[in-house]
């Protein structure tokens, strides 16, 4: 990403409440079982392993961060640990700026350090993290989408209907693992199940050729699909631009493509209507907030999602979404993918929305048991 990203809000690496305070930096590993194995393009994931970071100052203020590396999106677990060790050394000899510089380009490690700093700082300011990030008004709820897995047409219909009955106004279908014709039928079943009032999106995860994507988008337009994420491989920037120009009202969102190309190249190619912001992959909620402000200036919609994280990072993503004005439905309803968690989840999911914690900082408690 470019160093010239505009944005708003405060920098979490600037301990303005007490610049001379001594910060104690600790981190520890964790491993969380998934509720069921997750198939990705690279491997089958059964656990999410990472590191929990704790920052404390001499006055008793505490901030938490989480680094949960994901293959294909971030550095490896070993590189993440090494980066956190460098950050720990930097805190002992320098301060927050030195610690963030020490993690270098290890994005999951930077996410943890910057989130812990932001949690600490917003706690010092006695304000929720989202207001510290965005300097905006109070936000009670942010819309979230239900994720519909790659089931049969009948299973897709049932899942979409159940999501609608639970109050979700947006459903995102995983597509691309079956034939285009099969996915079109699945989308048709979902549309029949939820009617015209529920937004339907599709996420192809780079699965299609240009011809397959063109065929799918034509059918999806007739079915009222609002958006398709990453229909082509990340490198196919011009292909996405061509699809967007001929999409008949179906928006194109880039996910992997954002990380590969950056905002400038996407804007120059006119390749996307929306971009997907994964704070863990971007290097922190602060970075993601600046990218969100940047893309909104050029009429590109930011959508926040997680990388199947623990409660600390997941709650950070909710605060990030709350710091973005008029944010659309985001991919934040991922707690159910975990069989266990780091602590109590402060975010209530209710009628298709995440209720934003209003306590100071992240609002996460009970994650660092001695």
Structure report:
The protein is α/β, with parallel strands linked by helices and 370 residues long. It folds into 2 domains: 23-126, Enolase-like, domain 1, CATH 3.30.390; 141-355, Enolase-like C-terminal domain (TIM Barrel), CATH 3.20.20. It contains 12 helices and 13 strands. Strands 5-6-7-8-9-10-11 form a 7-stranded parallel β-sheet. Helix 1 packs antiparallel against helix 2 and helix 1 crosses helix 3. The protein is globular. It starts with 22 loop residues before the first strand and ends in a 15-residue tail after the last strand.
Present the secondary structure layout.
Blueprint: E1 23-39, E2 44-57, E3 62-67, H1 77-93, H2 96-102, H3 107-124, H4 129-134, E4 141-143, E5 146-148, H5 153-165, E6 170-174, H6 180-194, E7 199-203, H7 210-222, E8 225-229, H8 237-245, E9 251-254, H9 256-269, E10 274-277, H10 279-282, H11 285-297, E11 301-304, H12 311-322, E12 348-350, E13 353-355
Parallel strand pairs: 5-6, 6-7, 7-8, 8-9, 9-10, 10-11
Antiparallel strand pairs: 1-2, 2-3, 4-13, 12-13
Helix pairs in contact: 1-2, 1-3, 5-6, 6-7
| Strand-residue proportion | 15-25%
Read across the widest sheet, the strand sequence of neighbours is 5-6-7-8-9-10-11
CATH architecture of the largest domain: Alpha-Beta Barrel
Helix content: 25-40%
Mean pLDDT: 92
Rg, Cα atoms, Å: 20 Å
Q: Give the helix/strand class.
A: alpha/beta
What's the number of extended β-strand segments? 13
The CATH class assignment of the largest domain is: Alpha Beta
Terminal CA distance reads 38 Å
* Number of H/I helices: 12
| Tertiary shape | globular
Oligomer: single chain
What is the helix/strand order? EEEHHHHEEHEHEHEHEHEHHEHEE
Which homologous superfamily in CATH is the superfamily of the largest domain? Enolase-like C-terminal domain
* Poorly predicted ranges: 1-9
The CATH topology assignment of the largest domain is TIM Barrel
Biggest pleated sheet: 7 strands, parallel
């Amino acid at each position: 990403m470019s160093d010239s990203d505009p944005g708003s809000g405060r920098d979490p690496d600037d301990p303005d409440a007490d610049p001379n305070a001594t910060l104690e930096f600790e981190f520890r590993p964790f491993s969380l079982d998934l509720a069921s194995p997750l198939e990705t393009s690279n491997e089958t994931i059964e656990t999410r392993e990472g590191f929990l970071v704790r920052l404390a100052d001499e006055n008793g203020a505490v901030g938490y961060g989480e680094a949960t590396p994901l293959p294909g999106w971030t550095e490896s677990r070993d590189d993440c640990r090494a980066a956190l060790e460098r950050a720990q050394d930097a805190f002992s000899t320098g301060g927050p700026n030195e610690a963030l510089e020490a993690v270098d380009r290890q994005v999951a490690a930077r996410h943890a350090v910057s989130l812990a700093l932001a949690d600490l700082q917003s706690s010092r300011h006695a304000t929720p993290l989202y207001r510290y990030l965005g300097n905006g008004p109070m936000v009670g709820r942010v819309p979230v989408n239900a994720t519909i897995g790659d089931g049969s047409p009948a299973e897709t219909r049932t899942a979409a209907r159940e999501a609608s009955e639970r109050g979700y106004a947006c459903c995102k279908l995983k597509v691309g693992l079956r034939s285009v014709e099969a996915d079109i039928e699945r989308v048709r079943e979902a549309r029949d199940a939820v009617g015209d009032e529920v937004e339907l999106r599709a996420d192809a995860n780079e699965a299609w050729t240009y011809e397959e994507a063109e065929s799918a988008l034509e059918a999806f337009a007739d079915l009222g699909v609002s958006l398709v994420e990453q229909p082509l491989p990340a490198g196919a920037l011009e292909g996405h631009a061509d699809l967007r120009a001929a999409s008949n009202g179906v928006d194109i969102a880039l996910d992997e493509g954002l990380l590969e190309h950056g905002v400038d190249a996407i804007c120059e190619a006119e390749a996307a209507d929306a971009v997907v912001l994964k704070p863990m992959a971007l290097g922190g909620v602060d970075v993601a907030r600046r990218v969100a402000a940047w893309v909104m200036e050029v009429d590109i919609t930011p959508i926040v999602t997680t990388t199947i994280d623990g409660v600390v990072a997941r709650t950070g993503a909710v605060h990030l979404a709350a710091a973005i004005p008029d944010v659309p439905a985001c991919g934040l309803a991922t707690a159910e993918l975990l069989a266990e968690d780091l602590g109590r989840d402060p975010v209530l999911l209710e009628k298709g929305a995440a209720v934003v914690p209003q306590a100071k900082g992240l609002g996460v408690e009970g994650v660092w048991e001695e």
